[in-house]
Protein 1
Amino acid sequence: MADDLPTPAEFIRRELENRGLTQQDLAFALCVPAAAVSQIASGRRGISAEMACSLGAAFGMPAKDILGLQKAAELQAELAKAKGPSPAVAKNAKIISTYPVRKMVKRGWIDGDRKTFDQQLATFFDVDSVDEVPHLAHAGKKSGYSDVPPEQLAWMFRVKHIARETVVPPFSKKALRGALPKLKAMTVEPEEARHVPRLLSECGIRFVIVESLPGGKIDGVCFWLKNNTAPVIGMSLRFDRIDNFWFVLRHELEHVLRGDGKKSAIIDADLDAAGDHLPPEEIAANEASLDFCVPKAEMDSWIARKTPYFSERDLVGFARRLGVHPGLVAGQLRMRTGNFKLFSRYLAKVRFAVVQSAIVDGWGQIAPVTGTGIDR
């Protein structure tokens, strides 16, 4: 009840005082025994609807306003007797408003068992208690992930749990350098992407595909396990296009070659969108990706010669000369010109090929995670 709202007893006493009347005067006006007014004025008796009508007539005010005081007083009494909410309620509300818990349960990332939920969430985020989970921790316990959106962070930790249980040979930077021409040769046809997981595994890279959570806008991630000796690349394939697949993959591979992500994970989101004031590692990764898909000098020259008319014949011929799928050229052309309607039919799908041999979590599949894998 609001602090400025009087109880029925307080209201009666105040009105009598303001009008210079006694309880006996009011009893006479209401045609009731003086004891009845005394009980109401002392708070020992409530106001009925009938009494509210009588008081309203006596004081010249709506009966519903007087009855409202009685209802408010009854509500206040009920609240005073209530035990109050469990401390867990506020915490649970913060959890479900921060993380897409229902989606995480549906995807099999955590169990929906309420009895063990707090510990499951803590285990998922590699902390000792739910109070230390990023974005849920108190201000004094902020983690290094404070700037990462919760949907992206949950996705990254799922990649980490799967990668921990992935067995690959020791990482070889030399082998990865040698694998780049082989990867380039795979860009000619969408079906060739099925060989990517095997080739990366041979280089010692743990390659994991996890479907993104709604609103995550995550493209890829690069981080290291086993004391920074075992690189991990996670991809979401949220855009099932051949140009995006190869651009994101080569972007993450450049992070691995540079040793990025050893201090903290490199989370890449919205790589399709142009960005200003990027950090050096992102500029280097973008340049490597663009040059891998279509060498910049070649692309500059072709655009200069063909602007403003780009024909399918020219697109296909240029791609054939470079030894890549036309979708890679189309993807860069669309970004360079800002015309995202150009050559859409050449943006072939690749997910169907990649998932044939990759470790996949999403699109109806749940990657098995026993929780026994370690990253040390």
Note: The radius of gyration is 34 Å.
Protein 2
Amino acid sequence: MQLRDKGRDLHRFLRLLEDVVIDTLAAWDVTATRDPRGTGVFVGQKKIASIGIAVRRWVTFHGLALNVTTDLAAFTPIRPCGFSADIMTNLEVELGGAAPPLSKVETEMTGAFRRRFAEYPC
């Protein structure tokens, strides 16, 4: 996204991305929040979504990752966002073992993105 003419506010942009994920998870009655420990989205004490952007000349690159059915063992050899790997969760775990199809998650997230960014035109 081009941020040059949108106030050059990275924090606002990051909060909007978090809101997109929070809204998406609400479609499955999963209560998600921000956490002062870092950018991303949490369910309780577990991190379910990570956000990583780069900005060059006020144009963003990269984006966000919502763990839907992600193999959580993949986090073991790394420190995701500086946390211990055991902080990570996914939608499948939070729903008790039955994640929605990725196509439904994509549809929900696309709608949430459109709603949240309606006042933040690209």
Note: Residues 10-26 form the longest helix (17 residues).
Protein 3
Amino acid sequence: MASRALIVAVASLALLATGCGATAHSAAPPTGAVDTAFKGSPPPLASLHSQADQLLAGGAAAFKARLAGLRGYPVVVNKWASWCGPCKTEFPAFQRAAVALGREVAFIGVNGKDHNPAAASFLHEFPVTYPSYTDPNESIARSIQAATFYPMTVYFNRQGQSVYVHAGPYLSASALERDIRSYVLSSK
């Protein structure tokens, strides 16, 4: 009887564990849908789209240069890591929001405290339409006041000023899009 209870308990834990991961599966739209959504994107945003899923080096200097090149567009920066469970939970929201708003909002990832092979594997599982800068020592994260939590999302207005920081995961694309509209699209 005790062994049956143990089997039921182990099976229940296994189901619970797989159930937690089930919400984190990629929901990336098909490539054709992405191409259609981004057709006619302004050149600075098209440049981001052309670097989808890439891990970019260069540290804080390269990141700041990219931000400067995106002046005139709202920018959403998501700090994530392959080892971060909540990051896996929120990536489907970023997949959807980046496609829905990618013709008017710049999305950039910052991959912190991670190893490039693990980060590349993560992006293969959870593809996004924008690049991520590698940030193993969190120099980029510190420069945008995002070094505390994983994940963290920082919003920059069209003038390149940080206007909002969201600590923790977004659980839905609608919550993410609501914040994007509230903090960076409402101030045209």
Note: The domain at 27-185 is CATH 3.40.30.10 (Glutaredoxin).
Protein 4
Amino acid sequence: MTDYAHLKAAIKHCGLLHGDVAKVICKSEAQFSNLINGKAEFAPHEKTRIAELLGFSESWLFQPLVIHAGTGFSRREIAVLGPAIETRSRK
């Protein structure tokens, strides 16, 4: 499962709601939810528009965080630690 933790954090940092960003790329909140949770793929023009809106680099915003089942980490820990925990599990 791919999770765009950087994108979620940037949206929150900017004081926006997911619905606000969805409108900018002409998607419903449900469609945007599927995109941001890795259940669908962003189109290149959508990534560019979102990066412009949020003021962050596209490459950073859309760097996927791969969540491996059974790591023992909470979603919050995974969002903070990111790639450092992708290949190892908590003891």
Note: The CA atoms of residues 38 and 64 lie 9 Å apart.
